[in-house]
Structure formats: structure tokens, C-alpha cells
UniProtKB/TrEMBL annotation:
Location in the cell: Cytoplasm
An annotated Gene Ontology molecular function: ATP binding
Organismal lineage: Bacteria, Bacillati, Bacillota, Clostridia, Eubacteriales
Cellular component, GO annotation: cytosol
Alphabetized Gene3D superfamilies for the sequence: P-loop containing nucleotide triphosphate hydrolases
Keywords, comma-separated and alphabetical: ATP-binding, Cytoplasm, Nucleotide-binding
Keyword Transmembrane helix annotated: no
PANTHER family: PHOH-LIKE PROTEIN (PTHR30473:SF1), PROTEIN PHOH (PTHR30473)
Species per Swiss-Prot/TrEMBL record: Faecalispora sporosphaeroides
Chain ranges of the PhoH-like protein domain: 109-312
Family: Belongs to the PhoH family.
One Pfam family per UniProt: PhoH
Name of the protein in its database record: PhoH-like protein
SUPFAM superfamilies (alphabetical): P-loop containing nucleoside triphosphate hydrolases
Length: 319
């Protein structure tokens, strides 16, 4: 049995590291089949030599995040473990990202993975950013956070959120209500993100003033969008014609973010996805960035990562 010790400067570090009911350390113990015991200002890790080495590196990485004021959760513990297993521990230093936005409840919104950090940097640096990846990678949420930040800093006058009104494998028939009530169900994820950032009252105030607009993609035709932060969500469900129409709405002093997941296309069989086309057509144009997320960037429940991996494996075996 091999043993290694880690010294801790302050007791608060150990409390943050172990988590409530030692849940963070249990993940490390389970991953590497080691025993981790905290005694005063010292942590003792014992087990097989190679596993102990990796576990110690994970614990030291987590301590460095704690020292920079990051709150540890199951997600970032698992992410640190995956980076150590891939031999990319030097990248953990860059993980403690800057706060993008403060929500209406005072909670800071920060990138939680390297993919998310790169995505936010590309949005800052480019006029058009295309974010493509699986569900739960924060594509829409971070784009809305960046839009709210730009709006609060008065870099833009309007936030415009849009998505194609395509049913996800179900026919919803004729919906009751006026036009806004008919399209609301399609736009609900965008509303949720805006409510989180601004609060319901502030959101309503900006909506009435025309500073925020949430509309189906079909309503974009014929417009020029100046001084705006425009987000196209679920872009995999656009046709090539709709995508071209959307991109040519870009006005002066505006930014566009296009998000989508090419594995979840709800278009009728035989119809090409505008997102797939645009990634190929615009890949070498300056000031247009493409960011691809992987399953490691998933920040929802850990089972979402496992589900995505299982579907990818199934798709490969079918091919």
C-alpha cells in the first residue's frame, strides 16, 4: 500500500474540498480506488502507486480552484478528473474563469469547462460565432449571458432571440391564443435564460420598451438589425435558405451567435440542415468563429454525458 500526504494551509480549504458529506472526495476515491483521509492540516491518500499519484494531482488541482474562489461541485470535480486522466492538468489553471454576468439572484455566471471558456472568448472577439455541440453544454445559456453583459455595458441597444418553430417529432396541431401565445412554447428555453439573468419584472420592462425581442425566425425577413446582439437557437432546424436569410440581417455594430446540435435535427426527412451548410460554407471567413463542444463540456446531470456517449457509440456501430 502506497501513501502520499498533502498539506493544507487553512481549514476552510479542506471543508470546501471535501464538500457536504465528503461528496467531492468520494468521487475521487471511487475513480481511483484509493482512500482519502483528512486529519487537521493534512490529507493522506493511500492505494496503488499510480492511482495515488493521479488522485493527489486531482486534489491539488481542486485546491487551486478553491484558492481562486471557485465553488466545487460534482461537475467540476468530474471535469478535473477527466483532464488529469487525459494528461491535460496544466489546462486546469485556466479553468477559474472570469465572471461573465450576474443573474437576477446575484449568482455569478462563469464558464465551467475549457470549451465554454473558448466559446465566450470567441463571442467577444468575433462578429459571428457558431457554437455546435450536444445538449447541456451551455450554448444558449452562455450566449444569453454574453448578450445581457453587452446590453448592460451599452455596447448594444437590443437583444434579439430567435429560433425556428419546428416541432421535435410531434405534431402539435392548431395552438390556441394570439400569435405570441402560439409561438411562446417554441421560445420557452430563451425566456428561461432571460428570466434567470434579468428577473421577470426587468425582462417585462425591457420587452415593452423594445430592448428585448423574442420571435420566430420567420419574422426576421426584410429587416436590418443594427446595434443588436442576435442569437439564433436550435439552428440545426433551419433550412439553408432560412440560414442565409438570417445571416444577411446583420447590421452595423451588431453581434450574432448561432447555436445548435447537428445530432438533433427535427427537419422532415430529406431536408438539408442550414447549420451543416453554414459550417462548411463559412469556415474560412475572418471574423466568423466556429466552436465545437464535446461531451466533456456537458454541465447538466452526469447521466446526460453518459447518454450522449451511448448515442455516439450506437451511431458509430450503425455506420
Amino acid at each position: 500500500m502506497f501513501e502520499q500526504r498533502i498539506n493544507i494551509d487553512r481549514m476552510e480549504q479542506a471543508v470546501a474540498l471535501f464538500g457536504s458529506f465528503d461528496e467531492n472526495i468520494r468521487l475521487v476515491e471511487k475513480e481511483y480506488q484509493v482512500s482519502v483521509v483528512g486529519r487537521g492540516a493534512e490529507i493522506k491518500v493511500s492505494g496503488e502507486p499510480e492511482n495515488v499519484g493521479k488522485a493527489v494531482r486531482v486534489i491539488e488541482s481542486l485546491l487551486s480552484l478553491v484558492n481562486r474562489g471557485e465553488a466545487l461541485s460534482e461537475q467540476n470535480v468530474r471535469y478535473c478528473i477527466s483532464l488529469i486522466n487525459d494528461g491535460s492538468e496544466e489546462k486546469i489553471e485556466t479553468l477559474a474563469g472570469d465572471c461573465i454576468c450576474i443573474t437576477s439572484k446575484g449568482k455569478p455566471v462563469k464558464p465551467k469547462t475549457l470549451g465554454q471558456k473558448n466559446y465566450c472568448n470567441q463571442i467577444r472577439q468575433n462578429t459571428i460565432t457558431i457554437g455546435v455541440g450536444p445538449a447541456g453544454t451551455g450554448k444558449t445559456y452562455l450566449a444569453v449571458a454574453m448578450a445581457v453583459t453587452a446590453f448592460r455595458a451599452q455596447e448594444v441597444n437590443r437583444i434579439i432571440l430567435t429560433r425556428p418553430a419546428v416541432e421535435a417529432g410531434e405534431k402539435l396541431g392548431f395552438l390556441p391564443g394570439d400569435l405570441q401565445q402560439k409561438v411562446d412554447p417554441y421560445l420557452r428555453p430563451l425566456y428561461d435564460a432571460l428570466f434567470d439573468m434579468l428577473g421577470a419584472e426587468t425582462y417585462q420592462k425591457y420587452l415593452e420598451r423594445g430592448n428585448i425581442e423574442v420571435a420566430p425566425l420567420a419574422y426576421m425577413r426584410g429587416r436590418t438589425l443594427d446595434d443588436s446582439f442576435i442569437i439564433l437557437d436550435e439552428a440545426q432546424n433551419t433550412s439553408p435558405e432560412q440560414m442565409k436569410m438570417f445571416l444577411t440581417r446583420l447590421g452595423f455594430n451588431s453581434k450574432m451567435v448561432i447555436t445548435g446540435d447537428v445530432t438533433q435535427i427535427d427537419l422532415p426527412d430529406g431536408k438539408r440542415s442550414g447549420l451543416k451548410d453554414v459550417m462548411r460554407i463559412l469556415r474560412n471567413i475572418d471574423d466568423i468563429a466556429q466552436v465545437r463542444f464535446s461531451d466533456k463540456d456537458v454541465v447538466r446531470h452526469r447521466l446526460v454525458q453518459d447518454i450522449i456517449k451511448a448515442y455516439e457509440k450506437n451511431e458509430e456501430s450503425r455506420r
